[in-house]
Amino acid sequence: MKLILTPGMGIGPEVTARALKTLQLDAAITLMGDAKTICAALDAVDVSYRIADVAPCICTGICVVHCGDENEPPPVAAIRLAAEACLEGRADALVTGPIHKAQLIEKGFEFLGHTDMLGAICDADPVMAFAGGSLRVALVTTHMPLLAVPSAITVERVQRVVRTADRALQRDLGIANPRLAVCGLNPHAGEDGVLGSTEKEIIEPALLALRDEGMDVTGPISAETAFMDAHAGRYDLVVAMYHDQGLVPLKVLDFGRSVNWTIGLPILRTSVDH
Fold first, then answer.
1. Which end of the chain, N or C, is more open, meaning fewer C-beta atoms within 10 Å of its C-beta?
2. Which pLDDT tens digit goes with each residue over 109-132?
3. How far is 69 from 62, CA to CA, in rounded Å?
4. d(C-alpha 201, C-alpha 266), whole Å
5. What are phi and psi of 30, to 5 degrees?
6. DSSP state, 69?
7. What are the residues facing 51 on neighbouring strands?
8. Proportion of the chain above pLDDT 90, given as a percent
9. Do the Cβ atoms of 180 and 215 come closer than 8 Å?
10. What is the mean pLDDT of residues 179-207?
11. SS (H, E, C) 8-44
């Protein structure tokens, strides 16, 4: 297997180096980005590596490839080149470390983060999801103010996320008939309209059409019920309406065990669990 890691910025190279120190992987691992920073992190924990000019490396072991220049910062160049290698079949999967969005935007970075950039490179509309621990979660909305969430939830958006999650569970995880729970936006999933109308006007019609397509989709149900039942094994994935609705239970139960799993891409990409 050929893996590409982009350690990113901040503590990314250090965390990557320490992880590689503890892992015994029978794979060709290529680290891409600012070679000086990456090598210093590897040296600090005594991880063996070699410098390479081309990514991905094809030898079993760890290689470091420098990329980027004054026009494209190394963390950005690494993401682009790594994604292109996966698209072209030269690498099997991409693992990304953290980037500092504000610092990169000051240098001309035009995306809100990895997911948006990878979507543009792959000409896809990716969905942010998480897997690896006791829960799997996909998000209908991600990085936006809470006040903006209700207007961003549409029938089309809910259906796209559910369909993408259903396909990913089958294709990537081998779950033949995925069971999905879809949260409501409001407390108690709107309480029949008393606590909000998003469920009746948007989420219910979206799910009705998905059930007609043959999907095993439950909802809209209250988030606390959805996550409790998913933790008990009754669902394979929970679709949350907004960032903290999905990430709070995930982090409480699975922090350090889950990975950020970008679904809807033609490549396999994971990252740190937020």
1. N
2. 787 778 888 999 999 999 999 999
3. 23
4. 32
5. -115, 125
6. B
7. 64
8. 80
9. yes
10. 96
11. CCCCHHHHHHHHHHHCCCCCEEEEEECHHHHHHHHHH
